[in-house]
Amino acid sequence: MEQIYIRHVELLGFEKRFFPSQHYVYMLIVKWSDLSEKLVYRRYPEIHTFHKSLKEMFPIESGAIEKRDRTIPSLPAPSWMDSQKATETRQSPLAEYCRSLINQPPHISRCGLVCSFFAVRPEDENPPAPNPTRRSETIPVSLDKFKGTISEITGPIILDTYRVIADYDKTSKHEIVLHTGDLVDIVEKCTNGWWFCQCDSKQGWVPASYLEPLDTPEEPEESEPNYAGELYITTMAYQAEQEDELSVEVGEEVAVIHKLLDGWWVVRKGDETGHVPAMFLQTTNRKESETEQNNFQRRTPPPRRSTIRNVQSIHKKGRQRLNQETYRRNSRRFAQNSKGQGRKSPRPERKNLANLPEMPASSSEPKSQTPAVPLRPSADLIMQRCTEHTRKKVSIRKPSDPASVKLAVS
């Protein structure tokens, strides 16, 4: 007997339910190869979990091996807060995702994972008992809302996927537990080293030091060192625990020369350099300072990569990190170059110096005195550089004394 497969999936809208708690479910009409049509209800987090399982089942078509080979469509990650506005916004990318998924080659669109996910469940035929005080609200898809506004609809947001290098146990309710080898989607990268991630249906904050990119051990978004430095003020005291760290007191002014994504920045204080937690630094710019204060706040900095035990990376080579001696050497070199450029005269270099008369050398004059006024150019040099109109107006007398030359300019 031929296996039944899905011919078409169409999004009808979503339903707001209040039992057992308030949540939203999407209504999908599924048309099968035996000409039957079934109505199913799915929540967005479970749709996204199905999407991740599908990518793991087909690593080539998902672009895990080569990005150029990807054919499986992308799907935005669930938002932290499940609201009606977010549910409405996701309708367009979800409808496009369903259409593109069914148009995949048969080994994907007709696989057991796809068919089982869209198969009718008991709760689809018998929805949960309604809340006695509030009835469920059904909101159908409005085609007029998207008609003629295709150019205004942005594509789905593709989140960066990272891999967990070691087990991590959460220390607060805002964090999530991670295990070695887990793949997480990065929703937000905070400058203090705590990143908001999603792993399956869980969402929460994790330290960036426990994560690594899939393609390369290096962070493509990490900035290069800026040895000119950016002035920051320390908001908390920190006592160095490792050799490459720097102790600071409250209210000290330091220059940040390298902002690392793991939340440990390299700062310069006098002739010393070292790592300091970014969360203990505050910029002197008020607007930027207010923005940083709105970010996720923690009392403790994230752990450093060097303190993590049992690290299991998929990359043969680790991240290339500069040592503090390199930071100090480059800082001194930058300072010397800056002083040298400051002594250079701002006046442009003179050209055709060979045509100018040589100044007599005077060994008796001290070097600290003001330079002497250069000699007047010769008459021939003046005639070469003046305009045709001036040349006609200039009369040159050559008396017996060649040292005295009089120019009459009208």
UniProtKB/TrEMBL annotation:
<dbReference type="GO" id="GO:0005737">
    <property type="term" value="C:cytoplasm"/>
</dbReference>
<dbReference type="InterPro" id="IPR001683">
    <property type="entry name" value="PX_dom"/>
</dbReference>
<dbReference type="InterPro" id="IPR036871">
    <property type="entry name" value="PX_dom_sf"/>
</dbReference>
<dbReference type="GO" id="GO:0035091">
    <property type="term" value="F:phosphatidylinositol binding"/>
</dbReference>
<dbReference type="Pfam" id="PF07653">
    <property type="entry name" value="SH3_2"/>
</dbReference>
<keyword id="KW-0963">Cytoplasm</keyword>
<dbReference type="InterPro" id="IPR036028">
    <property type="entry name" value="SH3-like_dom_sf"/>
</dbReference>
<dbReference type="GO" id="GO:0042554">
    <property type="term" value="P:superoxide anion generation"/>
</dbReference>
<dbReference type="InterPro" id="IPR015039">
    <property type="entry name" value="NCF1_C"/>
</dbReference>
<dbReference type="InterPro" id="IPR032136">
    <property type="entry name" value="NCF1_PBR/AIR"/>
</dbReference>
<dbReference type="GO" id="GO:0043020">
    <property type="term" value="C:NADPH oxidase complex"/>
</dbReference>
<dbReference type="InterPro" id="IPR001655">
    <property type="entry name" value="P47PHOX"/>
</dbReference>
<dbReference type="Pfam" id="PF16621">
    <property type="entry name" value="NCF1_PBR_AIR"/>
</dbReference>
<feature type="region of interest" description="Disordered">
    <location>
        <begin position="281"/>
        <end position="410"/>
    </location>
</feature>
<dbReference type="Pfam" id="PF00787">
    <property type="entry name" value="PX"/>
</dbReference>
<dbReference type="InterPro" id="IPR051228">
    <property type="entry name" value="NADPH_Oxidase/PX-Domain"/>
</dbReference>
<keyword id="KW-0597">Phosphoprotein</keyword>
<keyword id="KW-0677">Repeat</keyword>
<dbReference type="GO" id="GO:0045730">
    <property type="term" value="P:respiratory burst"/>
</dbReference>
<feature type="domain" description="SH3">
    <location>
        <begin position="157"/>
        <end position="216"/>
    </location>
</feature>
<feature type="compositionally biased region" description="Polar residues">
    <location>
        <begin position="361"/>
        <end position="371"/>
    </location>
</feature>
<dbReference type="Pfam" id="PF00018">
    <property type="entry name" value="SH3_1"/>
</dbReference>
<protein>
    <recommendedName>
        <fullName>Neutrophil cytosolic factor 1</fullName>
    </recommendedName>
</protein>
<keyword id="KW-0728">SH3 domain</keyword>
<feature type="domain" description="PX">
    <location>
        <begin position="4"/>
        <end position="125"/>
    </location>
</feature>
<dbReference type="InterPro" id="IPR001452">
    <property type="entry name" value="SH3_domain"/>
</dbReference>
<feature type="domain" description="SH3">
    <location>
        <begin position="227"/>
        <end position="286"/>
    </location>
</feature>
<dbReference type="GO" id="GO:0016176">
    <property type="term" value="F:superoxide-generating NADPH oxidase activator activity"/>
</dbReference>
<dbReference type="Pfam" id="PF08944">
    <property type="entry name" value="p47_phox_C"/>
</dbReference>
